[in-house]
Design goal:
The protein contains two helices and twelve strands, in the order αββββββββββββα. The chain has about 200 residues and is of the alpha+beta class. The protein folds into two domains: about 1-15 and about 175-200; about 20-170, Jelly Rolls. Bound molecules: calcium ion (2 copies). The site of one calcium ion has 7 residues, from loops.
C-alpha cells in the first residue's frame, strides 16, 4: 500500500491545467445591424442610448479590403453612439490584443474624419485604455488583461473607430491530467494490483 500511495502522490504533482492557446475573433461573419454576435467563445453585444441596440460590421479599414471589421460611429454627442460589451461563454478569459484603426472606407456621407472623440476600453477588473480618435494608422495594441469577465468598448465625442482580430485566451479552470499523469496513474493502479496479488500469495 505504501507504494500505491507514493505513486498517487507522484501522479498528483502532474495534475496541472493544460495551457489554452490563443484564439482570434475576426468579425468576418458578423451581420450588420444584429444586436449581438458570437464567434468561438466570445459574444459581443451592443447598447445604444437612443436607437435599437445594433452592431456595425463592414469593410471599413483600408488596406485589407474584403476583411470585415466591427466599428462604432459617429457623432456620439447628439445621437449615434454604439457601445459594445464582450463576454466569454467560459466565464473568465484573457484579453490579449486588438487591432484598432480608422474607418477609412466608410462612405463620405458617413465620415470618420472627425477628431477629438475617444474610444475607451475597460474591463470589470478596472483596466482602462483611452484612445483619442486622431486618424492614426491601424495598429495592434497589446493588452494582456488577464482573468477578466467583461470587456467594454465605449465611444464618446465625434468620430469612428474600427476593431479587428481580437486575440483572447480561454481560462480552463478544470484541471486536466497530462498524458504523463495518466501513465503514472495507470502505473500506480497496476502496482497496486501487483501488491495485492503479492499479499494474497503470502497469505
Ligand atoms: Ca476581420
Ligand atoms: Ca477591412
Amino acid at each position: 500500500m505504501k507504494i500505491f500511495v507514493a505513486l498517487l502522490i507522484v501522479s498528483g504533482v502532474f495534475m496541472i491545467p493544460i495551457t489554452a492557446k490563443a484564439l482570434t475573433m475576426n468579425f468576418d461573419a458578423g451581420i450588420n445591424g444584429d444586436p449581438a454576435y458570437t464567434e468561438g467563445d466570445l459574444t459581443v453585444s451592443a447598447t445604444h442610448p437612443t436607437e435599437t441596440a445594433h452592431l456595425h460590421f463592414g469593410d471599413v479599414i483600408g488596406g485589407d479590403a474584403g476583411n470585415n471589421e466591427l466599428y462604432s460611429h459617429i457623432n456620439c454627442v447628439s445621437f449615434h453612439c454604439n457601445n459594445y460589451e464582450f463576454t466569454n461563454a467560459n466565464g473568465l478569459w484573457d484579453f490579449n490584443s486588438l487591432l484598432i484603426g480608422p474607418c477609412d472606407r466608410l462612405p463620405s456621407s458617413d465620415p470618420c474624419s472627425a477628431t477629438g472623440g475617444h474610444v475607451v476600453l475597460t474591463s470589470d477588473l478596472g483596466h482602462s485604455f483611452d484612445l483619442i480618435m486622431n486618424r492614426q494608422p491601424s495598429e495592434t495594441f497589446v493588452f494582456d488583461w488577464l482573468g477578466i469577465t467583461t470587456l467594454t468598448w465605449n465611444i464618446s465625442g465625434n468620430g469612428a473607430l474600427a476593431m479587428d482580430d481580437l486575440v483572447y485566451t480561454n481560462i480552463d479552470t478544470t484541471p486536466v491530467p497530462e498524458p504523463g499523469t495518466l501513465i503514472l496513474l495507470g502505473s500506480g493502479l497496476v502496482g497496486m494490483l501487483g501488491f495485492r496479488t503479492k499479499i494474497r500469495k503470502n497469505v
